[in-house]
Fold each of these.
Amino acid sequence: MTTPITFSLSSLREGRWYEYLVRFALGGAATVFAGLISSRYGASIGGLFLALPAIFCASATLIEKHEIRRKHEAGLEGKRRGQEAAALDAAGAALGAFGMLAFAGVFWILVGRSVTGAFVGASLAWLVVSMGAWFARRQLRVTGQRKSDPAMSRSR
Amino acid sequence: MTEYVIRFLVGGVVVSAFAMLGDVLKPKSFAGLFGAAPSVALATLGIGLYQHGAVYAAAQSLSMMAGAVALVVYSIVVCQLLVRGRMRALPATLLSIVVWLTAAFGLWALAGGQA
């Protein structure tokens, strides 16, 4: 099976400088906000906000905007395509959230024993679970398509 | 004050790094994994550990699990609002924050969370 993941630096050129600035500011603000909540209401409530989707709002909006811009350049409206691109990003985020759950669980188990081990172990858990979930979903979709269209599977 | 400036800078750098990684990867559903990367958590837990120790960071990560489950619900709701509700990304993601807050605090309370 070939790897369906590609890496393209040209995508970075599509972004405007202020879009990167907005994401930096939102990331910083979300981290300050989580710290303020922890100081005011305690670590337990503050911990909830470590999974706040503040950055996701900016990312999904930018993805939609870039897709619409690309379609406009090709002479098309692009609104629907932009929504679909943002929806795909949201579907990926749902799978990534399972990875975040694994990150938190592993960190909680390991932090009392080793700080470095907790960060390394939790990051690996995030990577393995989110990528594993993505590949499993992809495999299910491919298998589903083959079942609904046997002619397609014979031709592969 | 200095603590919050450091939080802002560290959070901004870590979040931007994950976001840029998501930008250069395709397909979009795979790049979306980085939209749920523990970027804010890495910065906050690191600072929390340095300032308050392991017990404090452990309490934060335990609650983070409820926040992460709420994030799964949030992402599915956003996806449905975009595909079926035909909403634009900004209102869909902002409105769904209510869903995230309800799910996160609901799970936290169910698990017997204490401040």
Amino acid sequence: MTADGLVIDGLTAGYNRVDVLQGCTLSVAPGEAVSLVGPNGAGKSTLFRVIGGLLPVRSGSLLLDGHDVSGGGAHRRARNGIVHVPEGRCVFGDLDVAENLELGSIALGYDLRRGDLDRVFELFPVLAAKRSQAAGTLSGGEQRMLAIARGLVGRPRFLLLDEPSLGLAPLLVQQLGEACRSLSADGISVILAEQNLGLVERLGGTAYLMTWGRIGRGAPASAVRTDDEIAEAVLGTQLTES
Amino acid sequence: MGALTRADVITILIDILLTYSISLTLRVGLLSIAPVAFQGIGAYAFALLTVKARFGIPLSVLLATLVCLAVAILLSFPLGRVRGLYASIATLAVVVIATGLESGFSFTGGSLGIAGVPAGDTRPALAVVVVVVVAGWYWLDRSELGRRLDAIRIDPSLSSTLSINVGLTKSAVLVFSNTLAGLVGALYAHSFFFVSPDSFNFFVAVQISAFAIVAGATHWAAPLIAGGVLALLSAVGQNYANYTSIATGVLMVLVLVLWPAGLGGGLRRLTARWRTSARGLRRKGEAPVAAAVDEQVVVTRNVSKAFGGVHAVVDIGFALPARGVVGVIGPNGSGKSTLLGTISGLVVPDTGTVMVAGRDLTGQDARTYAETGVARTFQQPRLIQAMKVWENLIVGAGEHAGAAAVRKVAEEVGITDVLDAWPGELPASVTRRIEVARALLRQPKVLLMDEPAAGLTEAEARAFAELVTAIGRDRLVILVEHNMNVISAVATRVIALVEGRLVADDRPEAVQAVPTVRTAYLGVPAEAAS
């Protein structure tokens, strides 16, 4: 097995005695765009935590370009080019915007280049305007943008975005979708966990339905609203609220 | 190992009580070392009262404790204003000052202390105090008060929006903890023939606070076990000093590695399974009724707020009716959360007035807003992970939190099945509903919701929208939301903010047609506008 890219096979992981992931199988080629959709609690964030190195693999394999990377923590994964932008805000509130971005480039040995910054500032102009403001004083949505921008300056090969649309205004979600699409065109694999189907459609590539700790069948992202199985789980042809 | 002497037993009992004193302050998120100083104040007061004033022993114990109560109340004003680590350092300063005063004056005997204090066997008295304190803590762990203390430790600003008086509660805890230590001090002085400043110095303070940190804040038995075992080791250790101090150190490190929240955290985890279920709710308490309503329940005039020169909101004014759902939309950083903050008291506006239910609340704290009838949910659900769902519901709800009320609200919101679950086990669609239930239980006149549909699937968002509509029949709901499908489905009126200014205030369709809203917020073409 020397396939390029990220290959996950039969992965299980979880918290305490519970296996949240019950055998996940997924492969992501360089530059491929992949979205995971499905109900809350299906294990999307848990899978990202495992790929990002925050949670250990219990069984199964996690291969990067054919090499087993399941040992080692999050810092190793970051050096391997896997960058995980967790759900929520996760910024250093006392540091200013520019310092937060600088920390995003630690994996590159602090080599934050002009071009990297220009790119994220073009995507999120508000961050350029507030570059010397403490991150903790930004609004919730702006902190989200900063967390995503910090992931981008790490020059990932694989970018894991956990619900990036959370708290972003519709206009920004559109722009984020365009940006992810162009990253993917540049050869960066973007892996998205999202409830916002508009963003999934904008990113393109393949969407997989994730339920109960397993990754199901894939469908083209443009078909998420029309694929019977996915539409039932995500759009709710019938209401399944408890 | 020989039998323990009387002095050993007394020391162990005293250390247990001091561990409880400090552990109680940990419970509200403080680490006060002041109990060791108050042990000294109580001991000196007792010595002076018996030796110099020749008062009787029971009277002297009582008076010494009252002296400590008075000093503790005076000190609670400055100590209550300091936060976090600085509060611990401030209490350390109290220890240093007390030691200085004890050794600095001739009437306290200088560094030699006071000898000839009438001594007696205090073991029975100390044992009684230990039993009372342990029983009190056992009750505290199961009481509404204990839940309030936990809420203050875990999330002070959430607590104040639940109308818990955080400052006063912390001060009261400090006063109680210090007074208990004062009583212990008086009994200490009565146990031995003399008191000297060395017994209450910095090193003793560090030792006892280490006991308390090992014990943690969250279980009634933990200070008894941790304080008891560690004090026993230190008493035995006087003969084998090296070995026991090494053993003590290893034990402390082991406990803290196993259970970072201390022994209490570990015990709580072990006993979590048996933790009281929702059946433990008090019987009394009426089912919530629709709040009494005024014509215009929320009125703001010229509200402005800047953070460090950045204008978050500028000159906002509106009057909102007592029923219905009002949506608030706007780009990120346009001031929506700041605006909600001014209506819930978490943000004090620089200029302008905020009136709720006919009362001018400008400049009041979040607790006053909560008491006037404002409840809120947060962008990221703020539930207390260490409490079961039903406990989260009733934190700070006071007299509204009877079993009937909880059941009715849980049914209304659709969370009846998860009352006995832990919030961490539940998906976002359910935790959002729990936050709503917690807010409704307070029978609010105004419910503020900050992006409640974020992270929900479209199906969940639709079901949530139905809930919001139902809630808005009896009260005002102010809904900040980016999901335009939800806004269109529930709001009868929408306020749009751009760069802190109110740019539109109208029916949803009309607001979505405003050019500024389309370009700055929805993006052109406005695909989500349906």
Amino acid sequence: MIAYKFLRSGRLGPFSGFHWPDAGVWVRSGEDRACGRAGIHACRVRDLPWWLADELWEIELEGESDVYEHKIIARAGRLRSRVEAWTTACADEYAEACAWRARERAIEALGRAGHESAAVRLAASGTLKELRTMAGHLADERPDTRISLLMAQDAADCARIHAAPTAAYIAAHAARRIDGPPGYDAERDWQSSWLARRLRLDHGAA
Amino acid sequence: MRDEALNEITCREFVELVTEYFEGALSARTQNQVEEHLVMCRWCTTYADQMRATVAALRALGSDPPPGDPSAAVLAELQRRREGPR
């Protein structure tokens, strides 16, 4: 099975600190427990938004695997190749896209509450800085939509400080606030699709 | 409060779980939730790093007993204080 794995710079496991060997070298959980609890942790495309880190690798998994809500754990795995398109700049681009998605939710919240002119003002923000300022201003003006507006503001802040996972998290919760759990799921699907498209990931992979 | 519908943990819950997390004592499900939280929460990541550093520093102290007879020194100090200034 082909899947994906995020690592810290230098091929380090984000949580285990395990130093992954060169591409092509098998790592088996029973032989090297330092590689991770109970096995090799990996992502399907749909899991990517939950596990962002410095490096993204394509990984080949072997043997039976346990499937969790947002990850797969296999008995063995080997890195195949690094996804070179996943860079700091790409992570920033993704974070910004998530911030604009959070803005769309805030615009929707304003529209539903009948604040059409405020929605137009928020939609006019063209930079993250403008989004941040306008969302904060409107949050004070329109307390009935305050939480959606503060979510948009926070997402803009996270994008500006290069916190892509947090911007994505906020965007998903902003969607949940508007459309409930299906909104959250749809936003996470949008995020994984964005990553797959931007990184040209193989949709035939896990 | 835990958001059961999303299977997420909060920062407060992370702080409560961090020791068990370091010891590998959490269920697979809870450990996944903790790690998902760490990916997106810089504050808790910093907290976890600080906890790890503290644990490492304490381990580095070793388990050598303090020099001399601490109980005798403590008793002598207590005796001195009870007698007060002269």
Amino acid sequence: MAAQEVVAQQQSATVPVTGSVRRRVPTGLWFILPFFVLYVAFLIVPVFLGLGISFFNTSLSGGLGEFVGFANYAELFADEAVWDSLWNTVKFTLLSTPPLVVLALVMALLTNNAMPARWLLRLSYFMPFLVPVTVVTTVWSWMFRTDFGFVNGMLEAIGLEKVDWLGQPGTAMISIVITTTWWTIGFNYLLYLAGLQQIPPELYEASAIDGANAWKQFTNITLPLLGRVTGLILVLQLIASLKVFDQIYLLTGGGPNFSTRPILEYVYDMGFTGFRLGYASAISYVFFLIILVFAFIQVRLFSSKEGSGR
Amino acid sequence: MSTARRDVHRVSRRGLLLGGAAFAGATMLGGCGGSVFRGGGKVRYWNLFGGGDGVRMVEMQNAFREQHPEINLEAVTLSWGAPYYTKLAMAAAGGRAPEVAVAHLTRLPQYAEDLLDPFDLDLLAEFDVRPEHFPSVLLEHATYGDKLMAVPLDVHTIVLYVNRPLVEQAGLLASPDALVELSSPEDFLSALDELSEVAGSVALATANDTATLWRCFWTFYRQAGGDIVLPEGGTVEYDRERMREVLEFWLQVFDGKRASATMDYGAGVAAFASGETPLLVNGNWELPTFVTAQEETGKPDFTMVPIPALFGPEPLVFADSHALVLPRQWSRDPETDRSAYLFISSLLKDITWAGGGHVPAYQPLATSEEYLELRPQSNYRGAAEVAQLDPPAWFSGAGSEFENQLGQALFAVYRRTLTPDEGMDQFEAAMNKLLKTPSPV
Amino acid sequence: MSATTTIPTSQRQAARELTGPRIFTPKVGRVLMWIAAAVLAVLWLLPVLWAFDTSLKPESETTVYPPTWIPSRFTAEAYSAVLAQGDVLVWFGNSVIVSTAVTVMTVLTSAWAGYAFSRLPFRGMNILYAITIAGIIVPGNVLVVPLFQEMLALRMVDTYWGIILPQVAAPVMVFILKKFFDALPKELEEAALVDGASRWRIFWQIVMPLSRPILAAVSIFTFIGAWNNFFWPFLVTSDPDLMTLPVGLANVQSSYGLRYAQIMAAAMIAAVPLVVVFIFFQRQIIRGVATAGLGGT
């Protein structure tokens, strides 16, 4: 009997992983359950529900509606507005990613060294990130007002002409990009700062001995060693840009003349303003698949970067 | 070692406390469906009156609260247009909509089927509100099958606000409440030219949101005899030549001196309120804004006149009607319903709303001495008879996709981003696409 | 290593003066860099400063053109008007309720799940883990239509739960916490197991205290995300009494009509909370970004 006890104790000491052998449900499952229930209910179920609804003419006001097979999908592929808004999303991504990455790096490089009031500089760059989108767009739509806005006031003060920032298709998207850059650069900035601080200073010392100047150090040491951070920032930035909605909806409402409307706002217009949840679901689903493909490619690129070593 | 033990105990207690607090909070939230901040047993009322008339509506709400302190009235104003209607629909779909809401009669088709509850005519009659108290044209729009789905509150239209001193200086003021006769587009354009000389600034203040652009367009297009027909499952029918005529007229107006296409709603109202702009074309609901400005600064000295008949013999003008509706609820409580009906009847009978510039729909009030004596409201009272509502379709109405699409095209044409022909093509394509879409109601 | 002993003293001294990477720039270069950084900072602060300035003006002077910084008098009347109206306070309260609930629930559920994935394997757990990780790629916004339909069916539209629950399941946090727990040495837990402690007790009394930094980072980021979340609360709440701060401000703009000073005042009130949070938790936030961004993927 004593031997059995010892054996049992040894067993539980060397195999501490699953709880008591007598329990039917593994402890791990209990720990996971709260998260997983919510995860299934509010992430997995919608994925399949969305697919399901997209085959019906579900309306906001009524129930499931009639079954229409692939009609919604056929309609969305022929719908110009789908491709226009998809293109707007891509345009937004292409325009906003470079400043958000490059300027963040510049800010990090500038404020990495000790300097007077550095905490204030850092706070200035990061603070907009803490502010909710409504405040951001309230402030910037106020800045961009054609008739009595601050930006136009400054432009005219230096002799330039007023610009109709939010009213012309050409400048509207640029205004959105400026606003977004101001708002979200803080996060990339922090990542770059952290990345810079991880670079061992001996590398710079060593290269200085070899006679490298600041520019050489930048291109041969700093940039390559920031590769991983840059890759991370790019991935996060692309994902965030593709699902843009908030600031465009609040700044221009997708206008002027739908020239800034991103795909998610078209989904909103179709599904909630236009009541056609079934159709909106089909569009969402196609967009979802596009993002999955993107993400898949990015993961592949990322892991191959890891594999190729630093 | 012992300090670590103490640490550990503190943390586990903290952990339990945290968990417990979360749990308690959760059960508390789980019970009530509504906000923790405002109590139950109330009449919730949503409206979209953010303009000058919003001030009057707030006065009416306060008057009601004073007269009936036992009823908890909770009023909210949401942004006009698509945001309001989308929110109303989503709330009604969710079954937690407000007891009473405002809706334009032109938007009723989308909501009447599934998102609204019908009125109980007997209960209404208890508060002295009967169908025969309303103009038949409004009643038609408000009735579905044999059920009354909306109670009309007013008829509202667009007018010309006239700055008396400036307009008189240009010799265009025939009397304190009327302009000289302008009966053609050329008359109007030369009048604007004279006014911009006198004022030294833009002659006509405007607004460039899609709704206002639509209204100004529709008024003259109807005057010219044009129409827009939206047959379900077919293609849009409209008069391209007349449309071009009106578009080119407005392009001549938006030449930067007579009027500016970049002027938005807020800027236009501010420009007229400052007393610097001779004319403003906008809805009658901005009346209180200028009354307030007059009280505070003495400016502007103004009146309101109907839009002149420039393109045809009759002064046809855009108009719509605000009505009160009962959004769908999972379950209706008779007590709350009674309070809601009482509130509705009080709004109908309150002349303050006419002070907001609107023409009352409730005939006992519209034909009363009190109202008939109001100036400048009586100047444009006749608009209710020549009212031109939006062409009927499930996607049409105030702030609808119809107005949005046409308004966007107008915006682009007046900004010279598109030619009138391109604008009309864009409008036509958008209408046909909407007509082909299966109606979700 | 031997190289350091051959670097001339003056250069080594210069190198030690800097706390960052030793990019050797002459004094002029450093001054220029500071000026550039300061210019950028001014640009970045400008919009908020301008909005703040506007909020302190009397209403009639907000639309003066060309714009001026100094009005005839500074006044806080816009703030008192906004606060008197009360809506902003209701939204603020809702934001506090929602953000706190989301943060507490997210941290708890993610920590439990992360711990299980790290220490408590069972048959089939790998599949569950793979499903969890797959969810990281799914951007939440794309699922709003079916999610709303689900809320309609569950009758949770316009309820606190409707706002809170979809925000709680956070596969990213589970992932981050799992990696953190993986890196914790197992000896303490194993010793406690030998003593007969249950996994539950071990979790609370041993693992949690050791995890304070990562828990702090997760909490703060979750709180910030929940506070600033717009799209989902925007969709699921139509009743203005339930709206969180960002949503209420956007929907009920016309409460303030065209009174720009009040609009800016409301915006300033909404901006303050998280800035305060940042000032108090600066270090954890910065460290959290570093850990999450660089310690894992």
